[in-house]
Amino acid sequence: MSGEKVKTHSAVFEIIKSVIVAVIISLALILLAALLIKVCNIPTSAIPIINQAIKALSVLVACMVCLKTPQNGWLKGIAVGLAYIIIAFVIFSLLDGAFDWSLKILNDVAIGSVTGALSGIIAANVRK
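The structure assignment produced for this chain is given below.
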């Protein structure tokens, strides 16, 4: 196997692993947030902000943990952010019982891409 092929497989594996870790972190944080919202009587108007913070934190932590090679950190981060948003949308829509196609999805894609790019850059530079 050539060196370029190994790098490609390694990058794809890092991205897949990062997305899985981000989804697991999200699920755990959403359960924790639901408990806190119920116990602390947090207003429902705060839920969208909490959800965006959970998504951003999940992508950041997943990139920091799983992106090991510093090459193209920003690109791998964007891939993680986009893949995570798509998979999270499908999972949470299935749990909700309905797919809500609105402008909120574009917002999630934009925030996921930017968060992923920044997380990938941070992860790549921490590894140097």
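Interim note for the steering committee: The chain has four helices and no strands. The longest helix spans residues 3-40.
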